Amino acid sequence: MIKDNLLQIKDNLPEEVQLIAVSKTKPIEMIQEAYDAGQRAFGENRALELADKFEKLPKDIEWHMIGHLQRNKVKYIAPFVHLIHGIDSPRLLAEVNKQAEKFNRVQKVLLQFHIAQESSKFGFSLEEAIEYLNGDEFNSMQNVEVCGVMGMATFTSDTRQVREEFHDLKKIFDHLKTKHFSDATEFTTISMGMSGDYEIAISEGSTMVRVGSAIFGSRN
Q: How large is the average pLDDT for residues 127-153?
């Protein structure tokens, strides 16, 4: 089932869109099955679970931290994580920079923006991000590389609202690319879209989708 689901999704993805298989809460055996089917990029939302799976699974897996990351948990994934999607505050990015320096790494990250109506979701506003990106603290960091943006749409059946929120994130990306990262060749990623809305996200410019239940089945 997992292999069939993966192949069906990949067949329908544009070439320029990367699929992150969201493996949070899923057992090692299911992740291995997806790996055997050719999937190499996996997303987790808990640092300790991610660190445990890193130890037990093949080392050519590209691990993505996609959930809200607490600062005191950064150290557990700092030696190996490929991309941290949810940089939602200056304090978190400072901690990521500090831990990456310890391991002599430059950590790839995405800035998370609050595009949904739910107050429970995390992220910068565009105004907060601009102020931060213009500041001395950000510009002094040597061990992080901002590769793009991430956002989550409102959990709703109103596809028009979801489309508008994804459209807003694409506008944020375009603004930052023009004003702050025009010379940054690595600033290319728009991580938006999950199992229920990734097709809308792609039509609005997503370059990376985070799909879990459509691959592995409903959440545990």
A: 97
